[in-house]
Amino acid sequence: VALHKQKAVTTQIEAADEAAIQLLLAAQISASDNASIIYTAAAIEALSCAATATAKLKDFLTKATNAVANGGKIAGHILELMNLLRLMSAGGTTGTCIRGTSDNAPKKMKNVQALGCPPDILEENGDDIQLEPAEVTASGFAKFKGNSGKGAGDIAKCHLLATNVGGDSAGHLWQTQTPGPQTVLLGLMTLTPHSTPAQTDNKFANLQQIASKFRAHDASEATGKLYNVLVAPQTEDIRGCGDTSQAVIKHVIKQGKVKGLIPAVRKNAKLTAPGTKADYGAEDMQKSVAGQDSEQEKKNLR
Q: What global pTM score does this model have?
């Protein structure tokens, strides 16, 4: 998503620069002084479009870099945990921490991609224009429903969550008997170790309704911060003056900004009287160059 939008804004900058060059060349070869001024004013506005797009790109790249860095960070957390569980459980049937494809042991899971995780090395992909809607929506993370990750009949299988009665033990990973739910994966999951197997649990956070219109309700906690960072590139408004030189030229003329530049230039130069409309002859100049009021934009583009 970030790469797609970065390319789009870069195209806008290139289009605005090209439009400015075309307009300046038109001003140079124009036989009419009025037309020359019109083209020059349009070129100035096209350069303004390029400057605006450049500033927008700088701001966007900051958000995009943040999203990519944090997206990779959380993906790495998930991948490493799942891969560790896969390796620990391989070959087992009674002491596994993750389910396999046909039984309780992940015998057929040769790599972490078999669990739905991304490849270890990602290839460049600039075709995505939005985050996967099945995963991220305007209101939160779609698949995090607050449900338990513990399968039926698996309450005593994962020794990763087992604690010792009395706590301190060289034979257990956890050194507190009942530490309670422990948050992992930046708040996406909680693990509950216990000395009684039936009391152990692993639970996904309920994150389906943590936001509204792609903005987290609470940006002070980890999942809200993570959500805002990840959706920032998608919600960034990158609309500009156009993605082709002709589109940029049409934009600056239709917006009326060219007409606004003419009186400013003439007023500062003190070469022309304000006139009855106090526009320093801007409207008459455009009519003269365009030939017809209704054909103004079309004529000025020629």
A: 0.75
CA 71/CA 136 separation, integer angstroms: 12
**Contact call for residues 230 and 141 (beta carbons, < 8 A):** no
Please say whether the beta carbons of 243 and 8 come within 8 A.
yes
Burial status of residue 67 (CB atoms within 10 A of its CB: 0-12, 13-18, 19 or more):
buried
Compute the distance between CA of residue 302 and CA of residue 44 in angstroms, rounded to an integer. 17
Which of 132, 145, 138 has the alpha carbon at shortest distance from 207? Answer: 145
Pick from 111, 129, 158: which is nearest to 2 by CA? Answer: 129
Phi-psi region of 256 (alpha: psi -120 to 50; beta: other; left: phi over 0): left
As a whole number, mean pLDDT of residues 46-51 equals 95
Q: Which residue has the tokens 């303004």?
A: 48
Closest CA to 81 of 228, 186, 206: 186
Q: What is the 3-state secondary structure (H, E, C) of 253-272?
A: HHCCHHHHHHHHHHHHHCCC
**Distance from C-alpha of 204 to C-alpha of 23, rounded to nearest angstrom:** 58
pLDDT averaged over every residue in the chain: 82
Query: How much of the chain exceeds pLDDT 70, in percent?
Result: 79
Tokens 């197997």 -> residue: 197
